[in-house]
Amino acid sequence: MSFPVPDALAHLAGEWRVERTVRDFAAGADGPAEGSFSGTTRFTPLPGGGLLHHESGTFTWRGTPRPAERTLRFLPGEPAGTVLVRFADGRFFHGLDLRTGRHTADHPCAADLYRGDFVVDDADSWRTRWRVRGPAKDLLLTTRYARVVTARRAPSTCPGSAGP
Q: Is the pLDDT of residue 163 over 60?
């Protein structure tokens, strides 16, 4: 089941906890090599509209952790509520339409094809599954996003108190 999102930019704004698994099926005869990413994605306003997507955290590949980050630009698309996703340098990556709560996007990269499936589970979680196939790559990247909710201080129940 998916959760319809009438305005993807409004929905994505804020901070998300990210957990990703990476499987490389072309790694060798011993089976797929596996890795993981753990970190955060922040969607912050861009001047002129849209959101800057900045992901940072730790990528662990074959037992070796290292810092990792990436930046994308999520810009207003047509029709309203949809998004044009661009790389940091401005090149087109893919469209994103979450109005039904689901979307599939293709991105050809040289002779390889990236196919992304996006599913919004509820107001505070969504997931992606990128399958990459071609002569250079055979990957599966599965990512789960959970909204980081900022805790607000509860009002004091004591008269004259500044807080709990």
A: no
CA 98 – CA 137 distance, rounded (Å): 27
Q: Rounded CA gap, 146 and 124, in Å?
A: 6
Each residue's pLDDT tens digit, 60-83: 998 999 999 999 999 999 999 999
CA 144 to CA 19: how far, in whole Å? 5
Asked if residue 90 belongs to a domain, the reply is yes
Question: Model confidence at 156, in pLDDT bands (50, 70, 90)?
Answer: very low
Give pTM, 2 decimals. Answer: 0.89
Alpha carbon distances (Å) from 7 to 14, 80, 111, 154: 14, 7, 33, 30
Q: Which domain, by its residues, includes 28? A: 8-147
142 has which bridge partners?
Answer: 21, 129
Q: Are 131 and 115 in contact (CB under 8 A)?
A: yes
Helices (H) and strands (E) in the chain, counts: 1, 10
Give the CATH number for residue 43: 2.40.128.20
Q: Do residues 113 and 132 lie in contact, with contact meaning Cβ atoms separated by under 8 Å?
A: yes
| Cα 115 versus chain centre, distance | 14
Q: What angle do CA 129, 111, 76 make, to 5 degrees?
A: 50
Number of domains in the chain: 1
